[in-house]
Specification:
This protein is α/β, with parallel strands linked by helices. It is built from 13 helices and nine strands. A six-stranded parallel sheet has the order 3-2-1-4-5-6, sandwiched between helices. β8, α7 and β9 form a beta-alpha-beta unit. It starts with 5 loop residues before the first strand and ends in a 6-residue tail after the last helix. It binds nicotinamide-adenine-dinucleotide. The site of nicotinamide-adenine-dinucleotide has 27 residues, from α4, α6 and α11.
């Protein structure tokens, strides 16, 4: 098989749009489909061909990539009488880059195997900025053979690929990582709020925490207070970055996985409750580090 492929790309939203554009830049032929005509036009402006259905996009494709809002959309596109698995030739490679439930992802893999199709789950980290720059991290679940076939396609959209193991393990890694991220962000926000209340400047606390045992991504890279890390969303009026609604979605998926596997994740569950409350107020438009402002708002000013 040649180094460039015929690729069907289903779901050209915030992430899928720039990912599809990077596949075009790498020399692949991309046929895009999305429910939104505006987004399809935008994909066409970046060199993809607009298809009128997922099935039409997938006709003759070596590879199908999906970047969809959730598990229901993914299973809807691939499964059932009208789903792609009913018509894709054996040996086609499918790559699901959506973040979905681990158990739904395993269902996706089982159906792919039954159809003779090679599949990987390949959720991403790096956000829209990483999708545009082609610097995403892909957490990949699937067989060695499927991972090897997916590698050149994923390399056109990302900088780091981690083969996490068996089918569904990319989703598992993604949910565990984001549960940890949410817990550490709430911890960082509480620590900055307490430091302020005790009379420390944000800078003084940052200088200590970022270089000692409190150091973590939520402090060092996306500090929840303005003025200490140039690139953090706090310096951009808490515009995402990584929106509260997306963190809420991932925490729900992590909680479903923890419940199903009987893991006692008290902090993960608590982080979900905190982000559920936050999302009810500010949903999609605020970076998840804005949880700091909720903590400050609930703190009386010192006398
Ligand atoms: P999005 O809502 O912007 O894009 C999803 C696209 O899928 C939309 O354009 C929608 O019209 C399309 N779609 C839905 N159902 C469809 C169907 N049946 N057929 C064709 N198109 C369909 O979402 P996004 O931000 O691009 O995220 C995509 C995935 O990546 C999600 O699973 C999300 O959790 C994950 N993710 C997002 C980010 C981020 O920062 N946005 C970061 C990491 C992971």
């Amino acid at each position: 098989m040649s180094d460039t492929f015929e690729i069907a790309f289903i779901g050209v939203g915030h992430m899928g749009g720039p990912m599809a554009a990077n596949l075009v830049k790498a020399g692949h032929t991309v046929r895009a489909f999305d429910l939104s005509v505006e987004l399809l036009d935008a994909a066409a402006a970046h060199g993809a061909t607009a298809a009128t259905s997922a099935a039409q996009a997938a006709e003759g494709a070596d590879v199908v990539v999906t970047s969809l809002p959730g598990g229901a959309a993914v299973l809807g596109v691939y499964m059932g009488d009208q789903g792609l698995f009913a018509s894709l030739p054996a040996g086609t490679l499918v790559i699901d880059c959506s973040t979905i439930d681990v158990f739904e992802s395993r269902t996706f893999h089982e159906a792919a195997a039954a159809a003779g199709v090679l599949a990987v789950d390949a959720p991403v980290s790096g956000g829209v900025v990483g999708a545009e720059a082609g610097t995403l991290t892909f957490m990949v679940g699937g067989t060695e053979e499927a991972f090897a076939r997916a590698t050149p396609v994923l390399e056109a959209m990302g900088r780091k690929l981690v083969h996490c193991g068996e089918p569904g393990s990319g989703q598992a890694a993604k949910l565990c990582n984001n549960m940890l991220l949410a817990i550490s962000m709430v911890g960082a926000a509480e620590a900055f709020a307490l430091a302020k209340q005790l009379g420390l400047s944000d800078q003084a606390f940052f200088d200590v925490a970022s270089t000692s045992s409190g150091s973590c991504w939520a402090v060092n890279v996306n500090a929840p207070v303005p003025g200490v890390v140039e690139t953090s969303a706090a310096n951009n009026d808490y515009r995402p970055g990584f929106a509260v609604a997306l963190m809420q979605k991932d925490l729900r998926l992590a909680q479903a996985a923890a419940d199903a596997t009987h893991v006692s994740n008290e902090l993960g569950r608590h982080a979900l409750e905190i982000y559920e409350r936050f999302a009810a107020d500010e949903a999609a438009t605020t970076d998840f580090s804005g949880v700091y402002n909720k903590i400050v708002a609930a703190t009386p000013t010192p006398a």
